[in-house]
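Feature request disguised as a bug: please show the residue count (281) next to Heparan sulfate glucosamine 3-O-sulfotransferase 5 in the output. Example input:
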Amino acid sequence: RPPTLLFSKQFYPSATRRLPQAIIIGVRKCGTRALLEMLSLHPAIQKAAGEVHFFDRDENYYRGLDWYRMKMPHSYPEQITIEKSPSYFVTPEVPERIRAMNSSIKLLLIVREPVTRAISDYTQLRSHAATAPSFTFGTSSPQRSFQQLALHSNGSINEAYRPLAISVYHNYIHRWLETFPREQILIVNGDLLIEDPLSQIQRIEDFLGLESKISTHNFYFNETKGFFCLRNETSDRCLRETKGRKHPRVDPLVISKLRRYFAEHNQKFYELVGEDMGWPE
Ligand code: A3P
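Example output, currently without the count:
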Protein backbone atom coordinates (compact mmCIF):
# COMPACT_ATOMS: atom_id res chain seq x y z
CA ARG A 1 0.00 0.00 0.00
CA PRO A 2 1.20 3.55 -0.57
CA PRO A 3 2.38 5.01 2.75
CA THR A 4 -0.23 7.79 2.70
CA LEU A 5 -2.93 5.21 3.35
CA LEU A 6 -1.36 4.45 6.72
CA PHE A 7 -2.40 7.91 7.81
CA SER A 8 -5.83 7.78 6.30
CA LYS A 9 -9.10 7.68 8.25
CA GLN A 10 -9.28 3.97 7.56
CA PHE A 11 -6.47 3.43 10.04
CA TYR A 12 -7.22 6.28 12.39
CA PRO A 13 -10.99 6.55 12.22
CA SER A 14 -11.33 7.54 15.83
CA ALA A 15 -11.77 11.17 16.78
CA THR A 16 -14.19 13.22 14.76
CA ARG A 17 -16.96 15.76 15.38
CA ARG A 18 -20.36 14.12 15.80
CA LEU A 19 -23.89 15.41 16.25
CA PRO A 20 -25.02 15.16 19.88
CA GLN A 21 -26.73 12.01 21.11
CA ALA A 22 -27.96 13.86 24.20
CA ILE A 23 -29.00 17.47 24.83
CA ILE A 24 -29.63 19.44 28.02
CA ILE A 25 -32.68 21.44 26.88
CA GLY A 26 -33.09 23.68 29.99
CA VAL A 27 -34.44 25.11 32.20
CA ARG A 28 -32.33 28.24 32.56
CA LYS A 29 -31.10 28.94 36.10
CA CYS A 30 -31.80 25.38 37.21
CA GLY A 31 -28.18 24.21 37.12
CA THR A 32 -27.68 23.54 33.40
CA ARG A 33 -23.98 24.54 33.49
CA ALA A 34 -23.25 22.55 36.66
CA LEU A 35 -24.95 19.55 35.12
CA LEU A 36 -22.95 19.71 31.89
CA GLU A 37 -19.65 20.20 33.72
CA MET A 38 -20.37 17.34 36.11
CA LEU A 39 -21.33 14.98 33.30
CA SER A 40 -18.19 15.81 31.39
CA LEU A 41 -16.20 14.23 34.23
CA HIS A 42 -17.31 10.94 32.68
CA PRO A 43 -14.68 9.56 30.28
CA ALA A 44 -17.37 8.61 27.77
CA ILE A 45 -18.87 12.11 27.57
CA GLN A 46 -17.67 14.98 25.40
CA LYS A 47 -19.35 18.36 25.84
CA ALA A 48 -19.70 21.25 23.44
CA ALA A 49 -18.06 24.41 24.70
CA GLY A 50 -20.48 27.28 25.26
CA GLU A 51 -24.15 27.28 24.34
CA VAL A 52 -24.69 26.43 20.70
CA HIS A 53 -28.25 27.80 20.19
CA PHE A 54 -28.68 25.86 16.98
CA PHE A 55 -32.34 24.88 17.22
CA ASP A 56 -33.72 28.06 18.78
CA ARG A 57 -32.10 30.71 16.58
CA ASP A 58 -33.17 30.76 12.95
CA GLU A 59 -29.91 32.37 11.85
CA ASN A 60 -28.08 29.29 13.18
CA TYR A 61 -30.67 26.67 12.27
CA TYR A 62 -30.71 27.61 8.61
CA ARG A 63 -26.95 27.17 8.43
CA GLY A 64 -27.68 23.45 8.56
CA LEU A 65 -26.53 20.37 10.43
CA ASP A 66 -22.95 20.56 9.19
CA TRP A 67 -22.59 23.92 10.87
CA TYR A 68 -24.02 22.40 14.04
CA ARG A 69 -21.68 19.40 13.87
CA MET A 70 -18.70 21.71 13.54
CA LYS A 71 -19.65 23.26 16.89
CA MET A 72 -19.29 19.86 18.53
CA PRO A 73 -16.10 18.59 20.17
CA HIS A 74 -14.06 15.72 18.78
CA SER A 75 -15.19 12.39 20.13
CA TYR A 76 -14.48 8.69 19.77
CA PRO A 77 -17.16 6.36 18.44
CA GLU A 78 -17.97 4.91 21.86
CA GLN A 79 -18.38 8.36 23.41
CA ILE A 80 -21.51 10.47 23.79
CA THR A 81 -21.53 14.07 22.60
CA ILE A 82 -23.68 16.44 24.60
CA GLU A 83 -24.55 20.14 24.42
CA LYS A 84 -26.72 22.47 26.50
CA SER A 85 -28.76 25.45 25.37
CA PRO A 86 -31.31 26.32 28.07
CA SER A 87 -33.56 28.36 25.80
CA TYR A 88 -34.43 25.23 23.80
CA PHE A 89 -36.97 24.36 26.47
CA VAL A 90 -39.10 27.48 25.97
CA THR A 91 -38.79 27.91 22.19
CA PRO A 92 -41.80 26.39 20.41
CA GLU A 93 -40.01 25.28 17.21
CA VAL A 94 -37.28 23.37 18.98
CA PRO A 95 -38.81 19.96 19.82
CA GLU A 96 -39.81 19.27 16.23
CA ARG A 97 -36.45 20.48 14.90
CA ILE A 98 -34.57 18.17 17.25
CA ARG A 99 -36.83 15.26 16.31
CA ALA A 100 -36.14 15.90 12.63
CA MET A 101 -32.41 15.56 13.35
CA ASN A 102 -32.62 12.47 15.55
CA SER A 103 -35.88 11.01 16.78
CA SER A 104 -34.13 8.74 19.29
CA ILE A 105 -32.01 11.44 20.94
CA LYS A 106 -31.94 11.56 24.75
CA LEU A 107 -33.07 14.77 26.40
CA LEU A 108 -32.18 16.03 29.87
CA LEU A 109 -34.47 18.58 31.49
CA ILE A 110 -33.25 20.02 34.77
CA VAL A 111 -35.87 21.78 36.90
CA ARG A 112 -35.75 23.58 40.21
CA GLU A 113 -38.37 24.76 42.67
CA PRO A 114 -40.13 27.43 40.53
CA VAL A 115 -40.02 30.38 42.96
CA THR A 116 -36.29 29.91 43.63
CA ARG A 117 -35.71 29.61 39.89
CA ALA A 118 -37.60 32.86 39.28
CA ILE A 119 -35.53 34.67 41.93
CA SER A 120 -32.35 33.25 40.43
CA ASP A 121 -33.45 34.48 37.00
CA TYR A 122 -34.24 37.93 38.44
CA THR A 123 -30.81 38.01 40.14
CA GLN A 124 -29.07 37.24 36.85
CA LEU A 125 -31.09 39.81 34.87
CA ARG A 126 -30.41 42.43 37.52
CA SER A 127 -26.69 41.76 37.47
CA HIS A 128 -26.64 42.05 33.68
CA ALA A 129 -28.55 45.31 33.85
CA ALA A 130 -26.08 46.61 36.43
CA THR A 131 -23.13 46.00 34.14
CA ALA A 132 -24.83 47.05 30.87
CA PRO A 133 -23.84 50.40 29.36
CA SER A 134 -25.90 53.18 30.91
CA PHE A 135 -27.55 54.08 27.58
CA THR A 136 -29.21 50.65 27.53
CA PHE A 137 -31.16 51.04 30.75
CA GLY A 138 -30.66 54.67 31.70
CA THR A 139 -28.61 55.70 34.70
CA SER A 140 -31.21 57.42 36.82
CA SER A 141 -33.86 54.69 37.17
CA PRO A 142 -33.21 52.67 40.33
CA GLN A 143 -33.40 48.92 39.89
CA ARG A 144 -36.76 47.49 40.78
CA SER A 145 -36.97 44.77 43.38
CA PHE A 146 -38.14 41.24 42.63
CA GLN A 147 -41.35 41.94 44.51
CA GLN A 148 -42.07 45.08 42.47
CA LEU A 149 -41.67 43.10 39.26
CA ALA A 150 -43.41 39.88 40.33
CA LEU A 151 -46.49 41.57 41.81
CA HIS A 152 -48.73 44.27 40.39
CA SER A 153 -49.30 47.31 42.58
CA ASN A 154 -52.67 45.84 43.65
CA GLY A 155 -50.84 42.74 44.93
CA SER A 156 -51.92 40.38 42.15
CA ILE A 157 -49.32 38.25 40.42
CA ASN A 158 -47.69 39.61 37.30
CA GLU A 159 -47.93 36.42 35.28
CA ALA A 160 -46.37 38.11 32.25
CA TYR A 161 -43.13 38.73 34.16
CA ARG A 162 -40.71 36.48 32.28
CA PRO A 163 -38.91 34.94 35.30
CA LEU A 164 -42.32 33.80 36.59
CA ALA A 165 -43.61 32.69 33.19
CA ILE A 166 -40.58 30.45 32.54
CA SER A 167 -41.19 28.71 35.89
CA VAL A 168 -44.62 27.55 34.68
CA TYR A 169 -42.99 24.40 33.34
CA HIS A 170 -46.14 22.64 32.13
CA ASN A 171 -46.68 25.39 29.55
CA TYR A 172 -43.54 24.18 27.75
CA ILE A 173 -43.17 20.49 28.60
CA HIS A 174 -46.40 19.51 26.88
CA ARG A 175 -44.93 20.22 23.45
CA TRP A 176 -41.89 18.06 24.19
CA LEU A 177 -44.12 15.22 25.32
CA GLU A 178 -46.15 15.50 22.12
CA THR A 179 -42.92 15.16 20.12
CA PHE A 180 -40.88 12.59 22.06
CA PRO A 181 -41.73 9.43 23.99
CA ARG A 182 -41.61 10.07 27.74
CA GLU A 183 -38.73 7.56 28.16
CA GLN A 184 -36.48 9.78 26.06
CA ILE A 185 -36.71 12.66 28.52
CA LEU A 186 -35.07 12.52 31.93
CA ILE A 187 -36.21 15.04 34.53
CA VAL A 188 -33.23 16.04 36.65
CA ASN A 189 -33.85 17.55 40.08
CA GLY A 190 -31.86 20.81 40.19
CA ASP A 191 -32.36 21.31 43.93
CA LEU A 192 -30.87 17.87 44.56
CA LEU A 193 -28.05 18.56 42.09
CA ILE A 194 -26.98 21.35 44.46
CA GLU A 195 -27.26 19.32 47.67
CA ASP A 196 -26.28 15.85 46.50
CA PRO A 197 -24.96 15.97 42.92
CA LEU A 198 -24.08 12.29 42.76
CA SER A 199 -27.73 11.27 43.27
CA GLN A 200 -28.63 12.97 39.98
CA ILE A 201 -25.46 12.12 38.06
CA GLN A 202 -25.88 8.40 38.70
CA ARG A 203 -29.45 8.51 37.37
CA ILE A 204 -28.12 10.18 34.23
CA GLU A 205 -25.32 7.67 33.70
CA ASP A 206 -27.97 4.99 33.83
CA PHE A 207 -30.32 6.90 31.49
CA LEU A 208 -27.52 7.38 28.96
CA GLY A 209 -26.58 3.70 29.17
CA LEU A 210 -23.13 4.47 30.55
CA GLU A 211 -21.12 2.54 33.06
CA SER A 212 -21.14 4.30 36.42
CA LYS A 213 -17.80 6.14 36.56
CA ILE A 214 -18.47 9.37 38.43
CA SER A 215 -18.15 8.91 42.18
CA THR A 216 -17.97 10.82 45.48
CA HIS A 217 -14.25 11.38 44.73
CA ASN A 218 -15.28 13.72 41.93
CA PHE A 219 -16.94 16.22 44.28
CA TYR A 220 -15.86 18.24 47.28
CA PHE A 221 -17.81 20.87 49.14
CA ASN A 222 -16.26 24.33 49.02
CA GLU A 223 -17.33 26.25 52.15
CA THR A 224 -16.47 29.64 50.67
CA LYS A 225 -18.52 29.08 47.54
CA GLY A 226 -21.24 27.18 49.37
CA PHE A 227 -21.49 24.63 46.56
CA PHE A 228 -19.91 21.39 45.49
CA CYS A 229 -16.91 21.79 43.22
CA LEU A 230 -15.47 19.29 40.74
CA ARG A 231 -12.38 17.15 40.95
CA ASN A 232 -10.63 14.92 38.44
CA GLU A 233 -7.10 13.45 38.16
CA THR A 234 -5.62 16.74 37.05
CA SER A 235 -7.53 19.54 38.77
CA ASP A 236 -9.98 20.83 41.35
CA ARG A 237 -12.37 23.50 40.17
CA CYS A 238 -15.53 25.36 41.08
CA LEU A 239 -18.01 26.93 38.70
CA ARG A 240 -17.56 30.65 37.99
CA GLU A 241 -18.90 33.27 40.38
CA THR A 242 -21.93 33.84 38.09
CA LYS A 243 -23.07 30.37 39.16
CA GLY A 244 -24.21 30.39 42.75
CA ARG A 245 -25.00 34.09 43.17
CA LYS A 246 -26.34 35.42 46.43
CA HIS A 247 -30.09 35.99 46.05
CA PRO A 248 -31.75 39.15 47.37
CA ARG A 249 -33.97 38.77 50.41
CA VAL A 250 -37.62 38.44 49.42
CA ASP A 251 -40.43 39.00 51.92
CA PRO A 252 -41.62 35.55 53.14
CA LEU A 253 -45.23 36.63 52.51
CA VAL A 254 -44.39 37.21 48.85
CA ILE A 255 -42.70 33.82 48.68
CA SER A 256 -45.80 32.14 50.19
CA LYS A 257 -48.06 33.93 47.77
CA LEU A 258 -45.98 32.84 44.80
CA ARG A 259 -45.77 29.28 46.09
CA ARG A 260 -49.57 29.16 46.30
CA TYR A 261 -49.77 30.48 42.75
CA PHE A 262 -47.35 27.82 41.48
CA ALA A 263 -48.99 24.94 43.39
CA GLU A 264 -51.58 24.37 40.69
CA HIS A 265 -49.07 24.77 37.86
CA ASN A 266 -46.66 22.37 39.55
CA GLN A 267 -49.43 19.81 39.88
CA LYS A 268 -50.05 20.02 36.13
CA PHE A 269 -46.34 19.52 35.50
CA TYR A 270 -46.24 16.48 37.82
CA GLU A 271 -49.20 14.97 36.01
CA LEU A 272 -47.68 15.50 32.58
CA VAL A 273 -44.31 13.98 33.47
CA GLY A 274 -45.69 11.39 35.88
CA GLU A 275 -43.36 12.46 38.68
CA ASP A 276 -44.00 14.42 41.86
CA MET A 277 -41.10 16.81 42.55
CA GLY A 278 -42.45 17.60 46.04
CA TRP A 279 -42.06 21.37 45.77
CA PRO A 280 -43.41 23.28 48.79
CA GLU A 281 -46.84 24.89 48.44
P1 A3P B 1 -27.89 30.62 41.47
O1 A3P B 1 -26.78 31.43 40.90
O2 A3P B 1 -29.18 31.32 41.50
O3 A3P B 1 -27.57 30.02 42.81
P2 A3P B 1 -27.65 27.71 35.12
O4 A3P B 1 -26.29 27.15 34.89
O5 A3P B 1 -28.73 26.91 34.46
O6 A3P B 1 -27.70 29.16 34.83
O7 A3P B 1 -27.96 27.55 36.66
C1 A3P B 1 -27.30 28.31 37.65
C2 A3P B 1 -27.56 27.66 38.98
O8 A3P B 1 -26.84 26.44 39.10
C3 A3P B 1 -27.10 28.48 40.15
O9 A3P B 1 -28.13 29.37 40.49
C4 A3P B 1 -26.80 27.43 41.22
O10 A3P B 1 -27.74 27.42 42.27
C5 A3P B 1 -26.90 26.12 40.46
N1 A3P B 1 -25.85 25.15 40.77
C6 A3P B 1 -26.06 23.83 40.91
N2 A3P B 1 -24.94 23.21 41.26
C7 A3P B 1 -23.98 24.15 41.34
C8 A3P B 1 -22.60 24.10 41.67
N3 A3P B 1 -22.01 22.95 41.98
N4 A3P B 1 -21.90 25.26 41.65
C9 A3P B 1 -22.52 26.42 41.35
N5 A3P B 1 -23.83 26.53 41.03
C10 A3P B 1 -24.56 25.40 41.02
